[in-house]
Amino acid sequence: QVQLVESGGGLVQAGGSLRLSCAASTHTFSTRDMGWYRQAPGKEREFVAGFRWGGSNTVYSDSLKDRFTISRDNARNTVYLQMNNLKPEDTAIYFCNAHSSLYSDLWGQGTQVTVSA
After folding, report:
1. Using an 8 Å Cβ cutoff, are 21 and 113 in contact?
2. Helix (H) and strand (E) counts for the chain?
């Protein structure tokens, strides 16, 4: 059963913007902290941004907080990642994550973001 569905990736030139979306089931969206990770070729998966404490707080990777913004639409059970001023080093597969302190994290299938120089 697919619980997280990402969309919005693609190819963009450096300096451009993309907005990623992650749609979740109502139960997942309301009971877990949603967030984004990314994995570049040959590198480990890294945290990008996320909600904590039931969505009341947001946290970011220090290196990305000036260009990336996470948001949510509770009515649509969707979390977004707005990425501005993209750089070639942002090229990665971006994964939606649904974190729970009680159960294993859920992961989306990933969406490819490629930034050309």
Report:
1. no
2. 1, 11
Instruction: Report residue 52 as tokens.
Output: 């904590």
Sign of CA dihedral 102, 104, 109, 112: positive
What tokens were used for 17? Answer: 């913007």
94: number of Cβ within 10 Å: 23
Non-local (6+) Cβ contacts of 67 within 8 A are 83, 84, 85, 86
Question: 70 with 35: CB under 8 angstroms?
Answer: yes
Burial degree of 89 (CB within 10 A; 0-12, 13-18, 19+): exposed
Return the SS3 of 14: coil
> Residue 18 and residue 76: Cα distance in Å, rounded?
19
In this predicted model, what pLDDT tens digit does every residue of 60-81 receive, in sequence order?
Answer: 999 999 999 999 999 999 999 9
Rounded CA-CA distance 20/90 in Å is 13
Residue 63 contacts residue 80 (beta carbons within 8 Å): no
Q: Is the pLDDT of residue 2 over 90?
A: no
